[in-house]
Design brief:
heterodimer; A: 157 residues; alpha+beta; Ubiquitin-like (UB roll); DNA polymerase, domain 1; 2 domains; five-stranded mixed β-sheet; 5 strands; B: 220 residues; two-stranded antiparallel ribbon; 4 strands; 2Fe-2S_ferredoxin-type (chain A); metal-binding (chain A); 2Fe2S_fd_BS (chain A); 2Fe-2S-bd_dom_sf (chain A); oxidoreductase (chain A)
């Protein structure tokens, strides 16, 4: 058994230390908000936070997460200071939706480190998250909106 | 009587052949032994070289050693993280890293695109998987340590310029190439990637010889 802290909760996970974190999250713990995309750190669909950094859980081993704080899209939704999902709904970003949890997890790191990003900052931060529906313009718009909501304490324009 | 004389001659001939044979074998054995005694142990030679000759500048030996080290420094396993621009390179053809990865101020990437988000502490198994090291990064933005596109002479200049090499003196440079963990990961490529053309020990030997023999700049 491996002890993991995920979304502020302690778990004893019946997983091998060399299992990809994504498998433990989805198949063992049932946290299926995080998606499997390419399985080789190329697409970003599996992005979760490890000590607040946006790691690719498909190549991150369970052993790397031991003693660290894991946050998935489910945990981010519960964070009252996070306005990304609200902005996503307001802009109606998703089309098929498959990549969106990874997109939001990456955007959260951007807004934590740069609360007022330019278009260029957004493109730089988000270029590792692929959306085959091509929702990039709406993603960019929603990140600007979330940044504004963050600055104004949650007021939607 | 005649028979007896004949037997004696045959016995004498046998004795002569036997003696000749023993002499020949002894000569061979002795020559090997003498050779072994005369040979100076390699370690002693190296020690003598290091102590007595290392400090003596020798432009030919120094330049030649740098040209050997240059083969490693300009190999994709080393050069890919020492690019001209602010984006790392990838693969054996040193193409610009996919996903528009950026150097960032500290060389560890930007926002959700930091090196360790994909590069794990170890190589991820499989073809086209991210190579790994616990400290994966580029040189920082204020000390870019560019290798890409440099001739041997230009790269040697960069290596020796403390304003370009991370403020390292000769000793620190040798320490860096010999012991730094991320430098070492060049000799542990991910699956499918080309290996460096010599061992780390050989590379360090050439690098050290270059510096010990006067740190001469190659002609071109």
């Amino acid at each position: 058994m491996v002890k993991l802290k995920i979304n502020q909760k302690e778990y004893s996970v019946d997983a091998s230390p060399d299992m990809p974190l994504l498998w433990a999250l989805r198949d063992v713990l049932g946290l299926t908000g995080t998606k499997f995309g390419c399985g080789m750190a190329q697409c970003g669909a599996c992005t979760v936070h490890l000590d607040r950094e946006a790691v690719r859980s498909c190549v991150t081993l369970v052993s790397r997460a031991v003693g660290k704080e894991v946050t998935t899209i489910e945990g981010l939704s519960a964070d009252p200071t996070n306005y990304l999902q609200k902005a996503w709904l307001e802009v109606d970003v998703p089309q098929c939706g498959y990549c969106q949890s990874g997109q939001i997890m990456s955007a959260a790191v951007l807004l934590r480190e740069n609360p007022n990003p330019t278009d260029e900052d957004i493109d730089t931060a988000m270029s590792g998250n692929i959306c085959r529906c091509g929702t990039y313009p709406r993603i960019r718009k929603a990140i600007h909106l979330a940044a504004q909501m963050q600055r104004e304490g949650g007021k939607v324009q | 009587m005649a028979q007896s004389t004949k037997n004696q001659i045959i016995n004498t001939k046998k004795a002569i052949y036997l003696l000749l044979g023993i002499t020949a074998i002894s000569s061979v054995v002795v020559s090997f032994r003498t050779d072994a005694y005369n040979r100076v142990p390699e370690e002693t030679t190296m020690a003598r070289f290091t102590a007595a000759e290392a400090a003596e500048p020798d432009s030919i030996v120094s330049k030649k050693a740098f040209l050997q080290a240059y083969k490693v420094l300009m190999h994709p396993r080393c050069m890919n993280c020492h690019p001209v621009g602010d984006r790392p390179l990838q693969g054996d053809d040193s193409h610009i890293h996919t996903m528009n990865v950026q150097r960032g101020k500290d060389g560890k990437g930007l926002y959700a695109m930091k090196c360790s988000n994909c590069h794990q502490p170890q190589n991820t198994p499989g073809l086209h998987m991210p190579p790994g090291n616990p400290d994966w990064h580029l040189p920082p933005a204020d000390m870019k340590m560019v290798f890409q596109g440099k001739s041997p002479r230009e790269l040697a200049q960069t290596m020796l310029n403390k304003n370009e090499n991370g403020h390292k003196d000769h000793e620190a440079l040798i320490e860096h190439v010999a012991k730094d963990s991320l430098v070492g990961s060049g000799w542990n490529p991910a699956e499918g990637l080309a290996h460096l053309p010599m061992s780390r020990a050989e590379f360090v030997k050439h690098f050290k010889t270059w510096l010990d023999k006067g740190a001469y700049l190659p002609d071109k």
